[in-house]
Design brief:
The chain is of the alpha/beta class and about 475 residues long. It is built from 15 helices and 17 strands. The relative contact order is 0.16.
Length: about 475
């Protein structure tokens, strides 16, 4: 069994029992972490010098659509239903299985290049079993840890066909995958059901899909917003009342949830994933991370669609931190300005002081940097039901870890290692990436054959898809 010793780095274990080490070693044996300590005297087949660098668990992306990777940079100016009307209705049906394969492969490789060791890959452009199989094969070929979220297409219904909201999840496909490629829950790539949920399907379809996922023993995950036009008016209030909501469910976005509905979700043990950069592009309600935390939940974050935003978890952490602080600051000042009674005035006196002429009225940040780092590691592992396997650096867990260098001009003088990662690091700082004990990136370069030709294939796929869609109406028409 191969032994790798990562020596001399600043260790951010994110594990309460291990703690942080200003200087420490990590011993990896086979696929698992064998020891984390200030100094390890052990034989190793390979030694990685991490002096001056940060060693930490790999980042986890709890929500991404890698099948969209070939069409980056189309949608940052879209609004309203442009994404659905143009991307899903016009472009998505043009994908061949090979388009799905190359986009998924390169999307997964890009994630690892940027320090991500695990993803929930939400695949909702799998019109045929061949598309599904191509996406799964790409995930296995990449070497990333992944939950493959088997979704369904959102194309416009043809004459005589039911609208997608009235069609239950195709269980024959779930049975096929559970009997075949994704039969194991312990493999590097596992299965989840990316269902429509109460915003995008009828109550009867929601019932069937939630029950089916539970019967198969799978995580279910759904896109939700909570706006008044949702198809099940009661939303998760109704789902919970029917006994269908629990820790085996993950919901994404949910920006418009009222407090009572969000509390029902948090109390059930279900996870809530926010994708701040994408959500704040054209929505008027803040991402839910702080609200989930304040209700006793564990916020989860992801990057969502690269059609509009960069699929980089460093960016995702920064977006989450800044937006949660901004809205919390606004709420605090509004509370001060509208203080009418003694309790409110007391709150203002304790929390708001103007220091000098230009001092900020905000005396304490609402969200700490370390919290956001935990959202991207520990909490995301929990959301994907990986919390007993990854998300922390501790003996016995899978060796999913990264080494982040601190010698770039933009990060070299960063003092606090947590702030260095969350506020300054970028993909070019990621020197080493290990997934299940296998080094997939070393010395700043991905270990993947013929990477240049794969990039050319990705570009060709995107160009072909756009050319084929030339007759489609403009996104803003």
């Amino acid at each position: 069994m191969t032994r790798t010793l990562i020596r001399g780095g600043t260790v951010l274990s994110l594990d309460p029992a291990v703690g942080d080490l200003p200087q420490g070693d990590v011993l990896v044996e086979g696929t698992v972490v064998r020891d984390v300590a200030p100094s390890i005297d052990a034989h190793a087949d390979r030694v990685i010098d991490a002096r001056g660098a940060i060693v930490m668990p790999g980042l986890i992306n709890a929500h991404i659509h890698t099948w969209e990777t070939a069409l980056r940079g189309l949608g940052n100016d879209w609004a309203g239903s442009d994404y659905f009307n143009f991307f899903h209705a016009k472009l998505a049906p043009l994908f061949t299985p090979q388009d799905t394969y190359i986009a998924t492969l390169m999307g997964a490789l890009a994630q690892m290049d940027a320090g991500v060791t695990g993803v929930l890959d939400w695949c909702h452009n799998n019109a045929t079993p061949a598309h599904t199989d191509a996406a799964i094969e790409a995930l296995f070929d990449s070497g990333i840890r992944a939950v493959f979220g088997h979704g369904t297409v959102k194309a416009h219904a043809k004459p005589g066909e039911k609208h997608f909201s009235e069609v239950p999840h195709p269980l024959d496909e779930i049975r096929r995958l559970r009997a075949g490629r994704l039969s194991s829950d312990d493999a590097l790539v596992t299965l989840a059901m990316a269902i429509l949920g109460p915003d995008y399907s009828t109550l009867e379809v929601s019932r069937q899909d939630f029950r089916a996922a539970r019967e198969f023993g799978l995580l279910s995950t759904a896109h939700v917003w909570g706006r008044p036009n949702r198809l099940v008016p009661g939303g998760y209030r109704t789902i919970a009342a029917e006994g269908l909501l629990g820790p085996d469910h993950n919901l994404v976005h949910a920006n418009y949830f009222e407090d009572d509905e969000l509390k029902i979700v948090v109390d059930s043990g279900a996870s809530v994933t926010s994708t701040t950069a994408g959500e704040m592009n054209n929505h008027v309600r803040i991402s839910l991370s702080r609200r989930v935390r304040d209700l006793g939940g564990q916020p989860s974050i992801g990057t969502d669609s690269e059609v509009a935003t960069k699929g980089d978890m460093f960016d995702a952490m920064r977006s989450a931190l800044r937006m949660q602080r901004l809205y919390a600051n606004i709420d605090t000042v509004r509370t001060a300005e509208s203080a009418q009674d003694s309790a409110a005035a007391d709150f203002v006196r304790k929390n708001l002081k103007t220091v000098g002429t230009g001092g900020s009225p905000i005396q304490q940040v609402a969200v700490k940097t370390r919290e956001v780092l935990e959202w991207a590691t520990v909490n995301n592992a929990r959301a994907l039901r990986w919390d007993r396997r990854v998300g922390r650096l501790a003996p016995g867990l899978q060796a999913d870890l990264i080494v982040v260098r601190r010698d770039g001009l933009h990060i070299a003088s960063a003092q606090d290692p947590v702030q260095a990662v969350v506020s300054y690091a970028q993909s070019s700082d990621v020197d080493t990436v290990m997934v299940a004990g296998r080094v997939v990136k070393e010395a700043g370069r991905l270990n993947f054959p013929m990477l240049g030709s794969r990039v050319a294939e990705l570009r060709a796929s995107g160009e072909r898809l756009l050319a084929a869609a030339q007759g489609a109406p403009a996104a803003h028409a």
